[in-house]
Amino acid sequence: MKLTLNIWRQASTASAGEMKTYQVEASPDMSFLEMLDVLNEELNEKGEEPVAFDSDCREGICGMCGLMINGEPHGPERTTTCQLHMRSFADGDTITIEPWRSTAFPVLKDLCVDRGAFDRIIQSGGYISVNTGAAPDAHATPVPKDNADRAFDAATCIGCGACVAACPNGSATLFLGAKVTHLGELPQGQAERWSRVVDMVGQHDHEGFGGCTNIGECVAACPKEIPLDVISQLNSDLRTAIRKGH
Amino acid sequence: MTDMPDTTTTAPESATAPAEFADDAAGYYTPGDPIRDTKAPSGPLDERWNTRQFEARIANPANRRRLSVIVVGTGLAGASAAATLGEAGYVVKSFCYQDSPRRAHSIAAQGGINAAKNYKGDGDSVYRLFYDTIKGGDYRSRESNVYRLAQVSTNIIDQCVAQGVPFAREYGGLLDNRSFGGVQVSRTFYARGQTGQQLLIGAYQALERQVAAGTVRCYTRHEMVELIVVDGRARGIIVRDMVTGEIETYFADVVVLASGGYGNVFFLSTNAMGCNVTATWRAHRKGAYMANPCFTQIHPTCIPVTGHHQSKLTLMSESLRNDGRIWVPKKKADCTKDPRDIAEEDRDYYLERIYPAFGNLVPRDIASRQAKNMCDEGRGVGPEVEGVRRGVYLDFADAIERLGREAIEEKYGNLFDMYARITGEDPYSVPMRIYPAVHYVMGGLWVDYDLQTTIPGLFVIGEANFSDHGANRLGASALMQGLADGYFVLSNTIRDYLADGPFDRIADDDPAVVEAQTAVQSRIDHFMSNTGTRSVDSYHRELGNIMWEYCGMERTEDGLRKAIDLIRTLRDDFWRNVKVLGSAESLNQSLERAGRVADFLELGELMCIDALNRRESCGGHFRAESQTEEGEALRRDEQYSYVAAWEWAGPDDPPVLHKEDLVYEFVEMKARSYK
Ligand SMILES: Cc1cc2nc3c(=O)[nH]c(=O)nc-3n(C[C@H](O)[C@H](O)[C@H](O)COP(=O)(O)OP(=O)(O)OC[C@H]3O[C@@H](n4cnc5c(N)ncnc54)[C@H](O)[C@@H]3O)c2cc1C
Ligand code: SF4
Ligand code: FES
Fold this sequence. Notes:
The structure holds two protein chains of two kinds. Chain A has helices at 32-46, 116-123, 145-155, 162-166, 173-184, 193-206, 217-221, 229-243, and strands at 2-10, 17-25, 68-69, 72-73, 94-98, 107-109, 112-113. Chain A is an alpha+beta fold. Chain A folds into two domains: 2-109, Ubiquitin-like (UB roll) (Roll); 116-243, Fumarate Reductase Iron-sulfur Protein, Chain B, domain 2. In chain A, strand 3 and strand 4 (72-73) form a beta hairpin. The longest helix of chain A has 15 residues, at 32-46. Among the domains of chain B are: 30-263 and 442-498, FAD/NAD(P)-binding domain (3-Layer(bba) Sandwich); 299-437, Succinate dehydrogenase/fumarate reductase flavoprotein, catalytic domain (Flavocytochrome C3, Chain A, domain 1). Chain B has 16 helices and 22 strands. A five-stranded mixed sheet of chain B has the order 1-22-21-11-19. A five-stranded parallel sheet of chain B has the order 6-3-2-10-20. Chain B has a five-stranded antiparallel sheet with strand order 12-18-17-13-14. Chain B is globular, with a radius of gyration of 24 Å. Mean pLDDT of chain B is 94; it is low at 1-19. Chains A and B meet through helix 1, helix 2 and helix 3 of A and helix 2, helix 4, helix 5, helix 10 and helix 11 of B. Flavin-adenine dinucleotide binds next to helix 2, helix 5, strand 7, helix 6 and strand 18 of chain B. FE2/S2 (inorganic) cluster binds next to loops of chain A. Chain A: It holds the Pfam family Fer2_3.
């Protein structure tokens, strides 16, 4: 299949970027990133610098990849960019490829962005404080299966940032809600539950992410199908925490 | 302690073939002194680790703020180590090449993690896990190390649960277990098909907690490109800031490598795109021995290659073999038919046929080699790539009928989705197609019982070291080893080394430092100024083809010799003809890859030499010259029951081989037989 690609090129954070147009020949069983590999090999051949884009596992689990494809985070399917395949496109298509757009995720080069803000949010409280060696036997505290399952569903977030890219406000509330729900559903996470939510929300706002107005674009873009109710959970935990004086 | 009766195999009389010594690799290496001491305590097996923990000195708590540790890697091994050392009060610097520690390749592990909890009451014990690991490793690992691994395995589960790792649970709220890859007890803890992800997020959160506490500093998008050795001790690393291109030098009292495996030497593997050997290879070139580099694990259940554009291979968890049945058509003519139209009697469930006791659950190397045999016979299925159909069916029709679609969905839903996404086929209605792919390396830097290399002050943990899996790793044991090393072993052994610190401050203009910096810079300058014509990837791909063809599932003397010649030629061409565009002072992914491929080109040769030297078949290493009449692997204990530890002798001299004899005091060496 023959494709026209409009790709964002930007030399560094400080420099201005622009869209550039390329032609590439792909096959339907290629992944989207393999299609970009093919383009890069051709650019290299022609003496043009290849397009920088992030990926690592290429299995949809590390969260490293992430492109705006025709205006949609991770493209037309509900999956990560690396798991998107060219069979989702047609011969002759024009595809526009851009980096995540968010003030909290500065562009480093071409399609690569800096998502360090997510790590700092976790640093602010996205953990359970237990030093190595200090844990009781794993069976000391049973966890009802329903809570365990809900915690698991929330814990599948891969930290890709698509929710932020999708949100008109540039909010990371889905990411926040996922972590708060994961740890808050478990008995082990109760001790720090109220301080955690307050500290994480504080850091989120400090990083320059926008506020949540319940639009729900994040959920539609999330490759791991993190459900909207983690945001209600977040809000309800936050209210309780404030009531408790945190 | 005596050997446990072996309920799982029927062992033939003797594992050893007539002892005629073949020195296949003569001329490719220089014999060196044997390694006599691995620093494991003697005495009863179950007391050795206690002894070592007691004897290892403790660095004064007040002093720890003055002791610094560099940890390269943030996978299960590195993140758990950095967090634990931070908690202990050391000053830790943590490095990774991804944009966040949470993205290390441990995240991709699907199946599970072993631990001798015996929660199922099915007869598991520390001894049984130890025994299974030794046997699974085909008697090429150390008893002391493996026993320790089994001992600390139970603490890992406790730690992870306390951190909030959402393992699968039963309705009563207790943890669930499953049986995994060739063992007969249920000791594998899992979190749907995303165990690695959940364990890594637990370790990552512990790490970020230490960042917040100020004990750990993380350097993401920083790639280690050189090790600094001063006065015989590892004292620092040189890294490239992958965003600005700056070359930076960091010093510490001790350096820990947790940089993962080098399976990407094969280009196509289930590893992440960035997995590399650079950190460990640079250390090897500075004096750390590389042990058993040819021991590679080829995983039987991966999605087959579809064409030349392929950038990586995707694993389908081995747990699928618990319920899926593997087959190929009996007749070549049926290979292009819709599998659903092939009658039961025309299907060859070859693993069930050849290994009735274990069937589809035979160890990975056997399952892999048999898949290759079937395809070589012309009975493979799926698209033809370069004239051969490389695929076999993994069929869930029976399981779906027996357990219902819902049960299968609950167990394997995300794997089935992944398969459908990649292939465009629905595995609930059409059998999956699978083929073996490189997955894991048992080889790695040689370490002693303390996990210290032959360079004092350089420790190696996780997949990057060679220590615990012998010639073959059991499923769900890499996660266990990474976390055992990182949470529980390293912190107890490294303190003995650090008790002598802090060491002298190193001057920025120390000759060893300047020399290392110059070497790094000139390598980069070479890549940037070379006026070549070929892309880095094209070299990587070609190297991968050579390795897969001659140093893959089946290795022969002639093939390995040929591979060594081909690699040498390719390497020369690479240095003359590689083309890297862009600038070194910015994010430059071609430049990053060029450095990695340069190191793979040296490693590949050593792997072939190691494979050539080892004229026996053991675990994942199958030498065609060493098989039984039925075509099964034939181990040669008299000649090869040693660890091959290779010393770098310079770019123009053959490597030096040091042998560490493997002595079995507790377990009797038996021929592995799964018939
Ligand atoms: C697809 C897949 C599935 C698997 N499933 C299982 C399973 O179910 N059970 C099981 O037990 N095992 C499994 N394994 C094996 C297991 O996941 C790995 O062996 C293990 O996770 C390795 O952990 P690690 O911490 O040693 O290294 P990794 O997790 O690979 O981490 C390496 C770290 O080193 C860093 N790094 C590497 N090189 C450099 C450098 N030059 N400079 C700076 N940083 C560097 C990386 O950034 C990364 O942080 C699986 C492996 C794969 C590939
Ligand atoms: S919530 Fe979803 S979209 Fe947002 S970071 Fe997590 S996985 Fe990505
Ligand atoms: S590359 Fe890892 S999720 Fe896409």
